[in-house]
Specification:
6 helices; Zinc Finger, Delta Prime, domain 3
């Protein structure tokens, strides 16, 4: 019985490690996009999208992650207490949002929100993300 529990506990621990790694990877790829937007580098944006797709990210889910990250950035400037992230991360994303400006952050969220709606019926969701 203890061996069975031990194996199950090990599997649970491994699942947590894998899911935690996926969260870090998701944050990294969305950070790449936001850094490219701050730099106003369209080539880097496209490269970041390509990188995310090579890592196996779903275009729709990735777009949702970018919108969520932009929302957190927006809130980090205006109401940091509403952002459910560590303080150092809130400071980091607030700086990015300030670099972009509130108007641009909101516009990115609007465009990507519209893109998500269009993705529901699109044969190639990645293409829509790339041209957004």
């Amino acid at each position: 019985m203890t061996a069975f529990r031990s194996a199950r506990d090990t599997l649970s621990a491994l699942e947590l490690v894998v899911s935690g790694g996926a969260e870090l990877e998701a944050a990294h790829t969305t950070d790449e996009i936001i850094d490219a937007l701050v730099a106003k580098d369209q080539g880097r944006v496209l490269a970041a999208v390509a990188n995310a797709m090579q890592l196996g990210r779903d275009p729709r889910t990735f777009t949702e992650d970018i919108v969520r990250s932009m929302r957190d950035s927006f809130l980090a400037v205006l109401a940091p207490e509403l952002v459910q992230l560590p303080a150092a991360r809130v400071t980091e994303i607030a700086q990015r949002a300030r670099s972009l400006g509130n108007r641009t952050v909101v516009r990115v969220m609007e465009v990507l929100g519209e893109t998500l709606v269009e993705m529901r019926h699109a044969p190639d969701a990645r293409l829509l993300l790339e041209v957004a």
